[in-house]
Amino acid sequence: QVQLVEPGGGLVQAGGSLRLSCAASGSTFANYAMGWFRQAPGKEREFVAIINASGGRTYYADSVKGRFTISRDRAKNTLYLQMNSLKPEDTTVYYCAASPGYSSDYRQFHYWGQGTQVTVSS
């Protein structure tokens, strides 16, 4: 079992930066790939980024590539998403998630955080 908790997101102006974190508990966190997804009301959950269990491999959605960076601190059991050059269209709820495999398909993720709101003003 893995429990994921995301502290609050935030409000930032376009062009600004924000870092999301996701604290994990449970003895098997280190064995899971971790990902970030986002979902706007009425829309399907959208893949943002994934990092493998060791932290040595990452993959990003084209919409965030070059602007967002996913990382994990295995000692602190924490996942991060550094978001730079934010755009108004990045506004939505962001979720962290854990998967036993390395996949961008949200259906492969077994555990989810509660979600955190990110708002980018123009």
Describe the structure concisely.
Helix content is 0%, strand content 48%. It is an all-beta fold. The model has no long low-confidence stretch (mean pLDDT 94).
Task: Summarize the helices and strands and which ones pair or pack.
Layout: E1 3-5, E2 10-13, E3 18-25, E4 33-39, E5 46-51, E6 58-60, E7 68-73, E8 78-83, E9 92-99, E10 111-112, E11 116-121
Parallel strand pairs: 2-11
Antiparallel strand pairs: 1-3, 3-8, 4-5, 4-9, 5-6, 7-8, 9-10, 9-11
Q: What is the helix fraction of residues, given as a range?
A: under 10%
Q: What proportion strand?
A: over 45%
Number of helices: 0
Category from helices, strands and their pairing: mainly beta
Average pLDDT figure: 94
Largest sheet report:
7 strands, mixed
Mass-distribution shape: globular
Flag low-confidence runs.
none
Rg = 13 Å
What is the β-strand count?
A: 11
The ordered string of helix (H) and strand (E) elements is EEEEEEEEEEE
Cα distance, first to last residue? 40 Å
Question: Would you write up a description of this structure?
Answer:
- It contains no helices and 11 strands.
- It is globular and about 40 Å long.
- The strands form 2 sheets. Strands 2, 4, 5, 6, 9, 10 and 11 form a 7-stranded mixed beta sheet that branches. A 4-stranded antiparallel beta sheet has the order 1-3-8-7, with no helix packed on it.
- The protein has strands spanning 3-5, 10-13, 18-25, 33-39, 46-51, 58-60, 68-73, 78-83, 92-99, 111-112, 116-121.
